[in-house]
Amino acid sequence: MIALLLFSALLWDQAAAWGFKDGVLHNSIWLERAAGVYHRESRSGKYRLTYAEAKAVCEYEGGHLATYQQLEAARKIGFHVCAAGWMAKGRVGYPIVKAGANCGFGKTGIVDYGIRLNRSERWDAYCYNPNGKECGGVFTDSKHVFKSPGYPNEYENEQICYWHIRVRYGQRIQLQFLEFDVEEDTACLADFLEVYDSYDDINGFVGRFCGDELPDDIISTGNVMTLKFLSDASVTAGGFQIRYSTLDTASSRNSSAPGKNNFLSGKFGIM
Ligand SMILES: [Ca+2]
Hints:
alpha+beta; Mannose-Binding Protein A, Chain A; Jelly Rolls; 2 domains; six-stranded mixed β-sheet; five-stranded mixed β-sheet; 17 strands; 32% strand; disordered C terminus; cytoplasmic vesicle; carboxylesterase activity
């Protein structure tokens, strides 16, 4: 009976980790993709895109700027990003699923800045492309090795790849760089790999890497990580292989026997 209770608690934790709350799957990368809406920022950082540039970013990837309705449809199934971006017709806003003091003025919905008269203002972009063929992927295995596109050949120019890693609630992710060779420049503006200790590329910035020196291992604080690789229009390099594996937090030593585990809830991971 106690085992059953523990197991039920575990299942509940697992469900919470995957983000079901009030019937909405929060921060779901899968559904976010299903909705075809995604967030993009400039290569040089947050809030650097004019309207024309934001349009060009989406069109470059074969999509277009999302409409308000498309952004709202994505929000309704859990798309939550704390960064204002251009939408179609010169509108600016961002989707908030979960109210928070630091984002969205404590409200949920599309935080709508309206249609901007000044199209030279700089924001991020919300693109819509239901058929997007990005490199990258979503990994939920307890370990995996992933590679730059085309590896062991050199990666190509103008790649945009996102890898989202999401492991079991209560586990952490350890990244180990096996091979690393990315065009080098002093600020890593040309080609780079970025690592985020988060489910998106807004929060939890860990580092931006280029060159051919192997970065040190990186261990997440929660059960999600995002990696983003961009290459520019010239000069490629050998690329990379990265292995991730999972580390159990102190309270969850043996993940192969779920009934015996007692996961700490609420301390680690995405709820
Ligand atoms: Ca390059």
